Amino acid sequence: MNTNTAVIGGVVIVLLLIGGIFLYTQNNTTGTTATSTPSSTDNSDTTPQTRTQGSPVATTNSNVNPTATTAVVVGGVVPNGAATSYWYEYGASSNLGITTAKQNIGSGYANLAAPTYITQLAKDTTYYFRLVAQNSFGKSTGATYTFHTTVGIPAPTGSTPTLKTLAASGVSRTAANLQGEVTPNQAPTIYWFEYGGSVNLGEVSPAQSIGDGTTKVPASFSLPNLVPATTYYFRLNAQNNFGTVNGAILNFKTAGPALSGAPVVVTLVTVPATTTATLRGTVNPNDAQTTYWFEYGTDAGFGSATVTTDHKSLGAGANTLSVETPITNLRSNTTYYFRMVAQNSAGTTNGDRQTFKTN
Questions:
Q1: CATH number of 162-253
Q2: Which residue in 64, 101, 171, 334 is a FRET match for 19, CA 20 to 30 A apart?
Q3: How far apart, in Å, are the Cα atoms of 208 and each of 113, 204, 205, 250?
């Protein structure tokens, strides 16, 4: 091979590696423009409108980077909320007949690149191909296109990335940092995290580019706005022209207490005297600033004649507290109805009605 040929080959390889995993969004601006063969099951224009689990959406991309015996193909897959795998069907005729290995693309609702590196192709040959994706709700097949292997362009170097999901750090009540490490293995590589409230995950972080090196690169993503006292699951994913890889699923639990709620109130039985009594109860503020009081009177329905004690503050703790309030100027030999009431920013809670009779 002369010097000019080597230089041209080297430039093509660089373009192959840089452009591959983003081809499906580039509107045929790079690579070889493939010829379309219409498919009745093409979902390339379908975009999910709601976050409802369902069959995936597979979009075959017409852009291909072929060499003499290999090709980089990149489509797009929307998993639609269920664990989804993808693969390519290809062959030297429109009957296809050959399938690539299945790769897992996750369970989110974002449109994710779905690359595959096809090898052992015949030189100077036209191939048909299409993307297929499947999850527990069904299977989706993209449009069929063609490409032609190109003699004189060397195959790219590199391999699928290697990675490891690491334990989350900085876990607090409402935030956590997801951690991992990725080795690009000589091909331009991106990574992202999947996360959610179950092992089905469902949420996807933005993709981050980490170059094409041969050493481990730290991967991280900060998760804000989490729910306190809740277990979250996550994993690291990475992708380059050669394919998609998934890390192990790990989990962490945010710190408590749980989000504030309306206070929990229990009205306790009281023992009265002739004209006095001490009203008692318990309150859990549920982590929000809470006040409490008692209502009492001779009306079982707590109507207009009901007396209300002074409102007292309990703070914003998460523990159940015992409280009491003495009352005076009662009538002797009279039945009284009473209940405890507590209030915070999440609502007002009335305790059960209790009764006592003065002596």
A1: 2.60.40.10
A2: 101
A3: 13, 12, 9, 20
